[in-house]
Specification:
Elements: E1 3-9, H1 13-24, E2 33-39, H2 47-56, E3 63-66, H3 72-87, E4 92-97, E5 100-102, H4 106-117, E6 123-127, E7 143-146, E8 153-157, H5 158-176, H6 186-199, H7 233-243, E9 247-251, E10 256-258, H8 268-273, E11 293-294
Parallel strand pairs: 1-2, 1-4, 2-3, 6-9, 7-11
Antiparallel strand pairs: 4-8, 5-10, 7-9
Helix pairs in contact: 1-2, 3-5, 5-7
Length: 297
């Protein structure tokens, strides 16, 4: 399968250094995967410093894309997926944001989970980072759970992308083009873009599906859209998956660590509120599972 991995970054060269150090532990599993780096531009971008770190790294790469301006995380991520799927014709794409530091077997587990999940018509994305709400042991490394949270990293195949991309491109065209991030009309996104789709009848995927028909898997933002729901591209991606009948699954046992305390949507207070300050430093030395189990709740 023609596969690409891409990173997106802006002005945090220290985190890019850590990200690449994590990928270095996965070099054997990167064989046959093309690596792209999309670096946002603008006065505070640190593009050159980040580019040099990438070039000096032992992690091979295909291309470094230097954005001519500060696209913002939404445009940068949407543009990267368009480039890799629509232009370059990749069949599978793995995203790693610059503040997600891969651990050993991150790539191997991601690919194993994606291959296993491909037999289920309702799985749209997989990821091997999680913030488990329980203690994890070695007997839990093959357990997965559906989630709407944390898009720091995921793997998606082109068949799913082709089903959800029209929603994402419509959002981009209407609300991300030609305006600064600070001036986006978040109220209109919620009321005019999200609410109508939220009210539509959700697509029901045909068998075989991972979740049984009576599984209680709520909509991404609860039963109704509140004024506090997120309206960024992650939220729109979650909405597009949901309306097309897809779920996103994550391994209960994380294979990475989230370190981005300061960012566009994060600071120390938000980091702590999300529970990210309580992440455990897991390193699993067991064999990577070839099959997985759904968490029993």
């Amino acid at each position: 399968m023609k596969t690409a991995l891409f990173t997106v970054s802006f002005n945090r060269p220290d985190l890019m250094q850590q990200l690449l150090s994590g990928l270095k532990e996965n070099l054997d599993d990167l064989d046959g995967i093309d690596v792209y780096h999309y670096i946002d531009g603008g006065p505070k971008s640190d593009q050159q410093a980040i580019q040099k770190i990438i070039q000096d790294s032992d992690v091979p790469y295909t291309t470094v894309i230097l954005r001519e301006e500060n696209y913002g995380v939404g445009r940068n991520l949407i543009g990267a997926r368009r480039d890799l799927f629509d232009v370059h014709g990749y069949e599978r794409v793995i995203l790693i944001e610059d503040d997600l530091i891969p651990g050993p077997n991150f790539i191997k587990t991601t690919l194993s989970l994606a291959d296993w999940a491909k037999s289920y018509n309702d799985v749209g994305m997989v990821q091997v980072w999680n913030l488990p709400h329980q203690e994890i042991t070695e007997t839990d490394i093959d357990i997965v759970e559906p989630t709407h949270e944390h898009f720091y990293s995921y793997c998606i195949d082109v068949e799913v992308w082709n089903e959800i991309k029209d929603t994402i491109y419509a959002y981009e065209a209407q609300y991300l083009q030609g305006v600064s991030y600070a001036n986006k009309d978040w109220r209109a996104i919620r009321k005019k873009f999200m609410k109508p789709r939220y009210s539509n009848i959700r697509t029901i995927r045909e068998d075989p599906t991972l979740l049984p028909i009576d599984y209680e898997h709520p909509a991404p933002f609860g039963k109704r859209l509140k004024r506090t729901v997120p309206t960024g591209q992650d939220a729109i991606t979650a909405l597009a998956l949901w309306e097309k009948g897809f779920i996103r699954i994550a391994t209960l046992a994380p294979r990475a660590v989230m370190k981005g305390i300061d960012g566009v949507h994060s600071n120390a207070k938000a980091f702590e509120k999300l529970g990210l300050n309580k992440q455990a430093q897991y390193v699993w030395k067991q064999e990577v599972p070839l099959t997985f189990r759904l968490l029993n709740k």
